[in-house]
Amino acid sequence: MLFAEAQGSGGSGYTSLLFIVGIFALIYFMMIRPQQRRRREVQNMQSAMGIGDEIITVGGLYGTIRSIDEDSVVLEIAPGVTARYAKAAIGKVNQKAVSDDDALDDEAATETTEEESPAPGTTPKSLD
User: From CA 120, how far away is CA 16, in angstroms rounded?
Assistant: First the structure.
């Protein structure tokens, strides 16, 4: 009697197939796709690194990039102390190096804001 009830359900073949396809879609969108996105972001970060950038390795070591090869970087981990690491060991760029042009632009921007703002503890000038 139980055997007859199991065969009696008509659409169970399509339902189980749809369920399996749904599980695979869920796995793709929850695991595979985010991992591909993270891998792409890490590759972009590692290709955009430059000399003078402050970085953190995947092991937690802080350092400053002194030179870059095709697949390795030389980090200064203390004044006068350098170590060579694989690019894949770089986990995060903590602070990008400031180029001379960017530094000049930043200085000009702070000079204009300092001239416009009143000194601390004083009242602003009126526009009479």
Answer: 72
Q: Which residue has the tokens 């169970």?
A: 12
Q: What is the pTM of this model?
A: 0.53
Q: Which residues, 6 or more positions from 50, have their beta carbon under 8 angstroms from its beta carbon?
A: 65, 68, 96, 97
pLDDT tens, per residue, the chain with 128 residues: 444 445 555 567 889 899 999 999 999 989 999 999 999 998 888 888 889 999 999 999 999 999 999 889 999 999 999 999 999 899 888 887 776 555 555 555 555 444 555 555 655 555 54
Question: In angstroms, rounded to a whole number, what is the distance separating the alpha carbons of residues 69 and 87?
Answer: 9
Query: How far is residue 47 from each of residues 10, 41, 51, 72, measured CA to CA in Å?
Result: 56, 10, 12, 11
| Residue 12 CA from chain centroid, whole number | 45
